[in-house]
Amino acid sequence: MSGAVYGGDEVSGLVFDAGSQTFRVGFAGEEYPKGDIPSHIAVQEPVADEIIEKQEAMEEGDNSNVKTKREKNFFIGTTKIIVPRARTTMQSFMKEGLIEDWDLFEKMVEHSYENILYSNPAEHPALFTESAWNDRARREKLTELMFEKFQVPAYYLSKNAVLSCFAQGRTHGLMVDSGATQTSVVPVYDGYAVTHAVVKCAIGGDVITEQLAHMLEHQKIDLVPTYKIGTKEEVNEGDAPKWTAKKNLPEVTESYDKFMKKQVLEDMSATMLQLCDTNIDMDYVEKLPSTPYSFPNGYTKEFAAERIKLPECLFDLSYLKTEGKKEGLMTIAQMAATSANLADIDIRP
Amino acid sequence: MSTSGVSVHPDVPATFQKLSEGKKEFRYILFKIQEKDIVVEAAVTQEELGISGDEYEESSKSAFEKFVQDIKARTDNLTDCLYAVFDFKFTCSRVGAGTSKMDKIIFLQICPDGASIKKKMVYASSASAIKATLGTGRIMPFQVSDESELSHREFLNQLGAKYGDN
Predict the structure, then answer these.
(1) pTM (2 decimals)?
(2) Which of A60, A121, A280, B33 has its CA 20 to 30 A from that of B3?
(3) Is there a single domain that holds both residue A151 and residue A270?
(4) Candidate from A29, A158, A168 with C-beta closest to B120
(5) Which SMART domains does this chain map to (chain B) (predicted)?
(6) What's the gap in Å between the CA of A32 and the closest CA on chain B?
(7) A14-18 and B37-45 as β-strands: parallel, antiparallel, unpaired?
(8) Which residues in chain B touch residue A15, judged by CB atoms under 8 angstroms apart?
């Protein structure tokens, strides 16, 4: 239910749901999360400033030549991370659906409490989600972090597949979760995730953006991320773009540039890609109306058949255009079938 | 048992007993979650249902229809959640035994798509508590999320598949 009673007050629980793409936080019992922030954090390396360091060392009465380690800067949140900065790399705390970088994760949770939930962690019980293949070491680490660092009064870790199942009002089901970095299929029986029948595969939203990038490269379309653009003019569809580069840009890192390009690709896939309701049908593909997409630099192009062929790779690997390794990949239908077959015979409907 | 902290009111097993044992006073019972307890919303007897005649012959079709109508009325046309048990009387044929009359209690976890996510979440995560109280061996559980899953034929098929030829 919505709240538990602590010291006579009705307080609501907080929910944290970490994903590879975004980190969702909110109050229990509400229909939507309060915050949905990118899981990527912009980490700025400190400048080695010897003068300041020596000065500080002197002030502390330490005359030895020890260099004080300068702190890194962390930027979190949709609007904060897209600012071009020097020596700044984009880093994510998640890897394959598991928490990998605990320092960054701690920063993320801290940011959520301070800037999204505006709550004191010691006053609210917390619910975290975990993927079905989370391991014991990570579970212990998270528990330790929450109790010792954040001093939460109560804490629970629940499987995300089970929670999605409950949100549909069901206790049994085969949960297919297609995320950014991977797609997983988890059978849920009587409110428990059947962990030995989990099937997952590195195919998901990121594969689609990669396919888009591949297509643009093939069509010789230059993808210019938003941060590079100073001015642009309106041009007719298909004409060469007229734009000028932004001046005084700091020297950005490759990971930042890649992240910003990916943002454009993600916007593109969200606005124009579409799936066929049934098996892909060439007649349907031909009839599909084309949709124009305007790139950040002002270039506009109509896309037609690509709109439907690109995302189809999740369901049919023959649409997947990649150099080399396709083996080991499975389509969503194959994953669901494999997972259902792995589950015990008496729990299948 | 339940992961939501919702518990089962003592009236629930007592009322259920009047449906499953002895004179079988009740034909169906509806349960809901009130505050932090699962309580009896309504218990309907055979007389109240007003159906006489051989129910096995038509496999409880008219009783079931009244039951569904009651569910719809109480959930504001399927925008709220409920638990329900229904005493399903039907006939099925078995190899070697011919046609036989059967009485099975079905348990419905009704969480319509139109209900709020919070409601669905609470009802789904508390279902194990009420199922354990009623006795999982005595009931056949079903999950209902829209009207199509409330059809008489669907239930009859499933019951037939389970208790019929095998």
Answers:
(1) 0.85
(2) A121
(3) no
(4) A168
(5) ADF (SM00102)
(6) 9
(7) unpaired
(8) none
